[in-house]
Amino acid sequence: MLRNIDRPELLIFSAPSVANDRGSRRLIYEAQQAGTVVAFLDDGRHGECQNKAAFQRVLGTDSFRDLRKGIQVVDLSTHGFLPPHPGSLSTLRKSFEVSPDGFGGSSGFGTQLQNPKREPLASRCVCFDDSREGCLAARAAGMRVVGVHPNFDYVNGLEQSCDVVFASIGDETLDNEVIIFDDLYTPGSFWLNPPSARDEFGYWCDPDTGPAISTGAAQLQEAEADKESRDLDVLAEHPVDTVASASSMEMETSVMDGILSELKESTKRPSKRPGES
Length: 277
Hints:
With about 280 residues, this protein is α/β, with parallel strands linked by helices. It has helices spanning about 15-20, 25-35, 50-60, 85-95, 130-140, 160, 215-235, 245-270; strands at about 10-15, 35-40, 70-75, 125-130, 145-150, 165. The radius of gyration is 23 Å and the shape is globular. Mean pLDDT is about 80; it is low at about 215-220, about 240-245 and about 270-275.
């Protein structure tokens, strides 16, 4: 059976630190040589214009001088979603137009029929980010996700939120392990099949509208508010002037305390490498 190998149609750098990685210039050059679109996404996550200014500083360096015309810095911080959000990545993807590769072999005599232009497919987009929230947003948008952080072992949830994680994209003259553009094909070195849009629990989600990505601290705050609300409900339903009602309230409070304790531990627990027990 003939199996097509799908080239990435769009590379997205949604964190300035990853764009400034020592291996990013080489990887972007390889992508441009293959005809893949490269974009830097300013989603306003670190404050108004901060991402954009950081990206512009990266493009202003000598190493990017010959590549900057082929890289677009896109500001989607005011598109209606609170970043990071899959909607911002989907909006970015749909703003581009690509000429897709033909399927399997040629149409005859060594040439292929040109396919009509279209927006990049989400399953053929690869997003690079350095945070759990950014990676989850890309995954919810139906894209492949590469986490890049020099201390990824200590970034809570980063490894679990992306397809693969590295300390650096890598410089071939300095590092034993590097990410090359061919690794990002499907099937490729990191994955075999196209991805689907899914949330942090693995359930399908709409890549255009959500879900919103919350941090561990936000989840804890929501749980604490829910506990307070439940306590008030218990007080309203069971007056505390009898032993039975007091016991019922204590039981419900104990259950909520257990849930809060689990959430607090999960936000502190260090991430593990894939395959570790």
